[in-house]
Queue: 4 jobs
Job 1
Amino acid sequence: DAVYAAIAPDLAEGAKAMSEAIDEQRRHMDSLRDAGFTPIELRTYPGTATYTAREWVDMIATHSNHATLPDEQRHALLRGVADTITQLGGIVTEEACVALILATRA
């Protein structure tokens, strides 16, 4: 967090908690229901992934909000993130959840 706050403060608050993401999917479901889709089903697939510092940095570098940063800022951010991960043991464990909404137009 400190690296983002110092180098890319606009990205510092961009991460959503898993519960926020599920709430967002439920709002999408309401919109689908209002548009005449039924039945609507939300399936969630929680999981955990483990990354080395290099793997994590390689992955976040592909996110559009990171990839579109000016080169100097992006390189400093990725270097700072990698250094922080290394200082904290070299591994990042991410809890994630994939959401799938299934719907049929009535």
Note: The CA atoms of residues 67 and 87 lie 24 Å apart.
Job 2
Amino acid sequence: LGFDADFENCNLRYGSFRNMRLQDVTLADCVATDCSFAETNLRRAKFRGTDLLGSQFSKTDLREADLREAINYWIDPQHNDLKGAQISYDGAIMLAHVFGMRVDSE
């Protein structure tokens, strides 16, 4: 299932986007907590000011996605395709944690 959509200031909490083709979608200033993005095509998606707390990503295509302004997300790079994705400093810390590394600010 695929469709063209952009979301702005939307409450998407508990949404299931499983198996959807949402490449190039924009989620701007949304609450997308506790959502399922399992096996979703989010290639080139833009997450701007969107809260992803508790959302699940598994076998998700996030190639070239922009996650720099997303908050509260946890994405395991071993189970998702993140090639070319843009992430923030906090996102880099999350990825380091997945691999058992520690990031010091000094």
Note: The two ends are 47 Å apart (CA to CA).
Job 3
Amino acid sequence: PLDHDTKKGSGAQEPTEEVPNVSKQSGKDVYQKYACVGCHGDKGKALGDLTMAYQKYDDSQLKAYIQNPSAFIVAPQMPPFLGIISDDELPLLVDYVKLLGKNAAK
């Protein structure tokens, strides 16, 4: 008598309602957690410049790029993060990458 579907359905609504209230700091946390800062720096421009990514790719393309860079460029230096960065963290990271690009353009 496990009622996973019902609980999952009602539980899934709560995080969805909270996501718009999540600050960009959460995206920054994800950026630091997966060591993006090591190659892209604090402002998105270091060994790998991602400051123009928000202009080149839409959200779904950015997610796909982060998960599997070799699908976009030959011999990428960036490792694939498919199965490493969670589905909950990925949109936060994409938003943060876009924010870095917009801040660099100022």
Note: The radius of gyration is 16 Å.
Job 4
Amino acid sequence: FTATTAGEGKVGETVVTLVRVEVDGDAMTLGIDPKTGQLRSLLARGTGPNGAPADVLTEYDDYRAEGGITVPHARRSIVGGTTAQKITVRSLQVNPALPADAFGPGK
């Protein structure tokens, strides 16, 4: 992959450093908060609500510590300037105990 800086942008009121990443011919632009190192946005080619290819901007917010890691608890995907999806994480468990038979044939 290759990564190059692409200037500055904003996610809400947060100034982000834009980084263009190319992997095997696919390109995306990451918006990284320079103060925290947190991913605040991801712009990539994806599938729009009508099934056609589209530029999809995903914004990440409400970072909180859970189980020793900091993760976003809010995500919004925008296609053509319109919010296409919102996700709010209400609870999160990191490495919860699972019964020994939780996975396998027939599960």
Note: The chain is about 0% helix and 65% strand.
